[in-house]
């Protein structure tokens, strides 16, 4: 290593140590920007996933940013107390993201669960990993080896399931079964959960009555297994169909049969099989039971079963067997039908005490084909779970903290990204209704700068402290005042000043003002016929506290009248023509031009920066970022990353990457990794548009919601950080997922290595999604992962235990015994698994299979065959890993 490299490394190490020493301890990762004080309801979709049976705490998945002070980006999991106070689960601490709330029909059952007292929860992330989060101490435990959560059996243990024996490759397509385990959330240890009958399928909606595991065995019999007494009960009920629901007390199966225009409601005692007809419901031809609790059954329907139903929409009805009454449950606070229930099954359930129903509201698109939003309503209305009982008013699951968001249409960020000025929209309008400033993480709300006066307003700039906000507005006062003007709002004095009154009919719609941190604002305007005594394009300075306006200098021809940047008392703006554009730097007080350079290709005006020390101009465009030395009049540095230089001159940053100027090191960043290092990098203002996922966007109206913005700092780690890791086995292949966050402020290649069963470390090559597949050894396998970089730094090692199985199961001793039109196929298998016989006369298009049988002798009976015909057959078997073995094809002939 040469001396210059040593010097660079020492400089970077010292800079990093200084930055870490100054990093705030335990500060929230994100600071929410969009906090419109006129909105006090949750501004986003909200799905109540589960409710703690003892304390009534809820586990909520939501992209509403105003549920807690500790905000996040996009969808987040929350603990919500019975009175609505929300506590966010900060998944960014482990480099993970919550699952997207998605559209109303997106199944969330079996993915996440809350413990009985609400002290913790198992949550599933966007990349299908599971974590247990304990509220006390805010601790995460990574959980491996299962696919879905059934429910907690105690405060620290839960039942989970894992798929086994499935193969969907080629022509075999053998379905598998589910294995049940108990997971210890403190250690992550999985223990097989013994059931008296082999489960083929397990209900993952939740434990029935918080006590019974409801499952189907390989003979298609239904069972209740009591997780407390360990007693198993074989039920008289058969498997549930789409027009049936099991009540949450574990007593009844409710069914609606359709006869003409009537819906016939029946219920069966699940243990005795005795069925009783409860009621015939007129106009109930599209009724289906969605959930039930004891004597109460809930339906989601568009049928107008109540006289007050006068408009089309989906509502929730409840039938009470004890009182023999059908009631409209989903009513607004004024008693009118809500008309906004989600038209999907499986999204309603009763609270643990059965007192209220939890159901999901929807938006107009799902109510009617060409739905027109009502006044004051978004087209894509927020979809939110509510609690309600018959005769009661809908109750929100969560309350809010601070103003709402999801309505930002346009925004501008201050020089150091400490303040944001944005346009906030109201439902039903394409533009925005007011301008809001968010200037301090300590504020619980934004501050309104402008609403109805003037009529049109475009954000231009805001000072770092948020005191001065500049916007372009249209004045409709008539006469010589009418036109576009620049306005300054001073939050210190709560005054709004139109600073371009001296211009006849304003300064035009393209002018933009830029501010410094000392109370000055500069803009360019065409003065010809508008400003007394001047003509042509001029640069002006405004003292924002007093409104005093000073012409600085004539700037000549300009391709646009917008000022690009200010800093250190200097102003950067475009000059020349659109065919030959330049950027000039001028002293904002003396008017002396200090520097002029040809503009870069496709220059981004918002990423043009003048550093505070007056020495550097940064221009960003399609080819990257160029830094110019103003005193020397030369190019100082170029970077392939296009971004905004911080006024300090230390960083170039965009929404995905940050470049440390001193060393050229490129740090990737995102909300997912924002907490994996010290928050000492540059500030990033990150925006995300919430809204539904549409499978057919050509028939859906455009998303009319606005964006949410948060601010975070680019994390810098002292050593590489491994995240998003997971290892699964599929027959002879290991699927490995992993990402690594680079470390430090130096340029160093980073990669992931793996070793199997204590062997040599091997470097892996991942796809862009962080996935790689490698051959799997046979039998129990220990997989270790680590991240490394070219400077020799490594991450902590993560260890995974899997069972590889590369051996094909063997079918032997196949024999056929024919009796008339019935054939009994006997064979042996050397492993447990699914068995199937494929058969037919001309081809093997027919099949008969049995799920999960033990190893040894097996038998499958084929009935109702054609008489006096020769049949072909092949026997398939699969093992736990999904390996499939086959017999040779053979034939048999039926009798008369």
Structural notes for this entry:
- By secondary structure, the chain is mainly β.
- Among the domains are: 92 residues, no CATH class; 91 residues, no CATH class; 166 residues, no CATH class; 84 residues, Immunoglobulin-like (Sandwich); 83 residues, Immunoglobulins (Immunoglobulin-like), CATH 2.60.40.
- The chain is 2% helix and 43% strand.
- It has one helix and 70 strands.
- The strands form 18 sheets. Strands 65, 66, 68, 69 and 70 form a five-stranded antiparallel sheet that branches. A four-stranded antiparallel sheet has the order 2-3-4-5, with no helix packed on it.
- A hairpin with a 4-residue loop joins strand 43 and strand 44.
- The longest helix is centred in the N-terminal third of the chain and has 20 residues.
- The termini are far apart.
- The N terminus is likely disordered.
Write the layout of secondary structure elements.
Elements lengths: L2 H20 L8 E2 L13 E6 L6 E5 L13 E5 L5 E3 L24 E2 L5 E5 L5 E5 L4 E5 L4 E5 L4 E8 L12 E8 L5 E3 L6 E4 L9 E6 L4 E5 L5 E3 L9 E3 L5 E8 L2 E8 L5 E7 L7 E5 L2 E6 L13 E6 L4 E4 L20 E2 L6 E4 L24 E4 L6 E2 L11 E6 L6 E5 L9 E5 L8 E4 L5 E7 L5 E8 L7 E8 L4 E4 L15 E2 L4 E7 L10 E7 L4 E7 L10 E3 L2 E7 L4 E7 L5 E6 L10 E2 L5 E6 L2 E6 L4 E6 L4 E2 L5 E3 L3 E4 L4 E4 L14 E7 L17 E7 L7 E10 L2 E9 L8 E7 L5 E3 L6 E5 L3 E11 L8 E7 L6 E9 L2 E8 L3 E8 L5 E8 L2 E7 L7 E9 L5 E3 L3 E4 L3
Antiparallel strand pairs: 1-55, 2-3, 3-4, 4-5, 6-7, 7-8, 8-9, 10-11, 11-12, 12-13, 14-15, 15-16, 16-17, 18-19, 19-20, 20-21, 22-23, 23-24, 24-25, 26-27, 27-28, 28-29, 30-31, 31-32, 32-33, 34-35, 35-36, 36-37, 38-39, 39-40, 40-41, 42-43, 43-44, 44-45, 46-47, 47-48, 48-49, 50-51, 51-52, 52-53, ...
């Amino acid at each position: 290593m040469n001396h210059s490299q040593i010097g660079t490394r020492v400089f970077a190490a010292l800079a990093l140590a200084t930055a870490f020493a100054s990093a705030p301890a335990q500060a929230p990762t994100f600071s929410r920007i969009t906090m419109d004080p006129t909105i006090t309801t949750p501004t986003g979709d909200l799905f109540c996933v589960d409710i703690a049976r003892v304390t009534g705490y809820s586990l909520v998945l939501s992209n509403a940013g105003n549920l807690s002070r500790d905000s996040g980006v996009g969808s987040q999991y929350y603990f919500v107390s019975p009175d609505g106070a929300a506590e966010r689960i900060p998944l960014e601490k482990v480099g993970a993201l919550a699952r997207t709330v998605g559209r109303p029909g997106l199944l969330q059952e079996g993915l996440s669960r809350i413990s009985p007292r609400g002290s913790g929860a198992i949550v599933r992330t966007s990349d299908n990993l599971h974590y247990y989060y304990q509220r006390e101490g805010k601790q995460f435990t990574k959980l491996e080896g299962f696919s879905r959560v059934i429910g907690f059996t105690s405060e620290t243990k839960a039942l989970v399931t894992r798929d086994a024996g499935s193969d969907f490759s080629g022509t075999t397509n053998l379905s598998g079964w589910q294995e049940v385990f108990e997971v210890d959330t403190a250690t992550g240890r999985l223990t097989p959960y013994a059931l008296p009958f082999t489960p083929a399928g397990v209900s993952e909606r939740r434990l029935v009555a918080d006590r019974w595991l409801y499952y189907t065995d390989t003979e298609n019999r239904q069972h209740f297994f009591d997780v407390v007494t360990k007693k198993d009960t074989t039920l008289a009920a058969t498997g549930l169909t789409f027009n049936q629901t099991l009540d949450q007390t574990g007593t009844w199966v409710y069914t609606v049969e359709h006869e003409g225009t009537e819906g016939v409601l029946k219920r069966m005692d699940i243990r005795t099989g005795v069925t009783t007809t409860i009621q015939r419901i007129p106009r109930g031809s599209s009724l289906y039971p969605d959930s039930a609790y004891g004597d109460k059954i809930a339906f989601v329907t568009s049928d107008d079963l109540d006289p007050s139903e006068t408009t089309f929409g989906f509502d929730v009805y409840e039938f009470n067997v004890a009182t023999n009454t059908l009631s409209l449950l989903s009513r607004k606070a004024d008693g009118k039908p809500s008309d906004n229930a989600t038209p999907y099954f499986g999204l309603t359930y009763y609270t643990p005490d059965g007192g209220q129903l939890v159901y999901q509201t929807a938006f107009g698109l799902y109510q009617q084909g060409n739905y027109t939003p009502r006044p004051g309503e978004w087209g894509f209305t927020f979809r939110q779970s509510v609690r309600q009982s018959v005769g009661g008013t809908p109750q929100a699951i969560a309350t809010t903290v601070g103003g709402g968001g999801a309505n930002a249409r346009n925004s501008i960020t201050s020089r150091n990204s400490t303040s944001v000025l944005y346009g906030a929209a109201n439902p039903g309008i394409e533009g925005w209704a007011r301008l809001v400033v968010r200037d301090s993480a300590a504020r619980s709300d934004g501050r309104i700068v402008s609403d109805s006066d003037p009529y049109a307003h475009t954000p231009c700039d805001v000072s770092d402290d948020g005191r001065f906000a500049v916007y372009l507005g249209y004045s409709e006062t008539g006469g010589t005042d009418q036109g576009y003007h620049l306005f300054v709002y001073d939050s210190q004095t709560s005054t709004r000043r139109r600073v371009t009154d001296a211009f006849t009919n304003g300064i035009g719609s393209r002018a933009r003002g830029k501010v410094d941190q000392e109370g000055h604002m500069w803009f360019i305007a065409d003065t010809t016929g508008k400003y007394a005594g001047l003509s042509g394009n001029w640069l002006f300075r405004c003292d924002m506290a007093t409104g005093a306006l000073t012409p600085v200098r004539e700037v000549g021809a300009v391709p646009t009248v917008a000022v690009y940047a200010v800093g250190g008392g200097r102003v950067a703006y475009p000059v020349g023509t659109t065919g030959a554009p330049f950027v000039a730097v001028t002293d904002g007080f003396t008017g002396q031009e200090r520097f002029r350079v040809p503009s870069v290709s496709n220059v981004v005006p918002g990423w043009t920066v003048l550093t505070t020390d007056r020495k550097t101009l940064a221009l960003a465009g399609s080819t990257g970022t160029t830094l110019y030395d103003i005193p020397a009049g030369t190019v100082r540095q170029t970077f392939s990353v296009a971004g905004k230089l911080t006024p300090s001159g230390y960083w170039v940053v965009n929404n995905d990457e940050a470049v440390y100027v001193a060393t050229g090191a490129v740090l990737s960043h995102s909300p997912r990794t924002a907490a994996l290092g010290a928050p000492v990098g540059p500030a990033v203002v990150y925006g995300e548009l919430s809204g539904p996922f549409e499978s057919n966007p050509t028939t859906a109206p455009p998303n009319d919601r606005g964006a949410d913005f948060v601010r975070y700092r680019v994390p810098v780690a002292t050593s590489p950080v491994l995240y998003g890791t997971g290892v699964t086995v599929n027959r002879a292949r290991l699927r490995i997922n992993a990402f690594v966050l680079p470390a430090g402020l130096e340029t160093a290649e980073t990669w992931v290595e793996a070793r199997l069963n204590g062997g040599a470390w091997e470097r892996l090559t991942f796809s862009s999604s962080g996935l790689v597949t490698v051959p799997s050894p046979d039998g129990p396998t220990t997989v270790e992962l680590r991240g490394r970089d070219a400077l020799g730094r490594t991450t902590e090692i993560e260890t995974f235990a899997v069972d590889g199985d590369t051996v094909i199961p063997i079918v032997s001793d196949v024999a056929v015994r024919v009796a008339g039109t019935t054939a009994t196929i006997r064979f042996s298998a050397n492993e447990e698994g699914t068995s199937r016989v494929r058969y037919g006369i001309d081809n093997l298009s027919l099949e008969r299979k049995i799920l999960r049988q033990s190893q040894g002798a097996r038998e499958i009976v084929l009935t109702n065959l054609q008489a006096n015909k020769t049949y072909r057959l092949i026997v398939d078997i699969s093992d736990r890993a999904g390996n499939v073995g086959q017999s040779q094809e053979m034939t048999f002939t039926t009798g008369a």
